[in-house]
Amino acid sequence: MNKKCAYCGNPESLTREHLWPTSLIQRFEEQMITYNGRIDKCYETEGTIKDVCPKCNNNKLSVLDNYLCSLYEKNLKNIISPGQPARLYYNYDLLLRSLLKISYNVTRSFKKREDIIDIHRKFSKYILGDELVRPKGIRLHLQIVTSAKIKSIDTDEIITTLEPGHLRCGQINYDGILSEKIFIRMVAIKSYYFYIFISKCPISNSKYRSFIQEISNWKTPYLGIYLNPSSSSVHIPVKKTTYLHPRLLGSMLTAGINYSLEKNPEFMEDFPDILTFY
To answer: Which residues pair with 187 in a beta bridge?
Structure first.
């Protein structure tokens, strides 16, 4: 008996769905390297999951892939340099559906948080475009992450520049106000870090305002600027951007260094023991 499609729920033959749109990956010049947080390791492949029917995969979900690639060509492909502002033009529902699709795909690939998978599943009709009413309890933020210079503390010499040239999706660790009722997903495309705040249950306006106030005071990661659903563009001034601090990469940084060492044992020879990012 065939399993059901993760999106439409129909028991049809299932195809492989890329966690990230193939057409987006093809726009990157470098070899795609996937980080698996479950085993804390990088490997050369494009992540996939085989639980989507051909109708959803090739028709309804491809609309979102096309939109995201169009947005990439217009805005997201540009890595923002320090001291530069940024502007994003967007269709809110197409953007949110595209980000939820990626988050849902990545969440299913790990299979360790059934509660988070179940909540994403409730958005499946909205992601497909079969449900036009926007889900309640979702808030979208955008953080602009610029490149960072890496220098030696001892000599003050600039060693290299670290650029946000990756694709990343994951869970933001949060244990503050309403942490039992809200979780935060992050989808990063180069300098553009999107944060999706998802409520597990109804929350009063006063409590939600307290939550927003708390996360607004975070320094790292700074969770960016609210994207207004009724707008089609947002301007991010220089003072609202942040540089690529190592904490934004989390465990992916160590795994990436280990991967580089496996490919090139001399990788770290030119790096001093103590570095600072700015």
So the answer is: 169, 194
